[in-house]
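Hi C.,

You asked whether I'd gotten around to modeling the 220-residue construct. I have! Everything is below, sequence then structure, no commentary in between.
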Amino acid sequence: MLIIRANYFGLLVSIPGVLVAITFHEFAHGFAAYKLGDNTAKNEGRLSLNPLDHLDPIGTLMLLFAGFGWGKPVHVNPTQYTRKMSMEKGEAIVSVAGPVMNFILAIVLAIIYGAIIKFSGTFIDSTVGNIIIQMLGVAIAINIGLGVFNLIPLPPLDGSKVIMPFLPYNAKQWFRNNEQIFYILFVVIWITGITSIMISPAIKWISTGIMTLTGMIFGL
């Protein structure tokens, strides 16, 4: 379920999952920023569930062929965040909103997956039923992959901002002063395929947990 095969059928069943994963991920970033007082995403039309507003060509292709990728970045202005918290914490909340949304979607889709298997009878043995089940399975994998990938603590990924509030002051300064190095490191691990090695155990662990929970709910 975690590998998206590069064939025509595999691409077709992957498309709905990719569109849903990217759209809700980027929407979550914009919505979190909006709730914190920043209207930038709203003014740029990013508080939308239209996939065309959020797709990044390279990131979308990565999701289709590798199971992890990214959408078009949502612009935010941390200076507009509520003063009830620091800008740093606000940025962390906005950044983590995307991956959290993907994990929530994976759970919801897994419940739908389990319900269909439990209650649809012979429908899942039909061509349509089989395609729907495969689409759901791939969509679950894509959402988990996108969520985990974006939590890698390297710029420009969400994880680089999520960890900031938890770092000591000197570590934060060092991280910011050497940000360009981390960008280069990210490119290197992406090109060499180390990214996949890094996140595969986490994806497998989360996938197993979600599907085990689904099985317990529906007695599968």
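If it helps when you're writing up: The chain is about 70% helix and 0% strand.

Thanks,
B.
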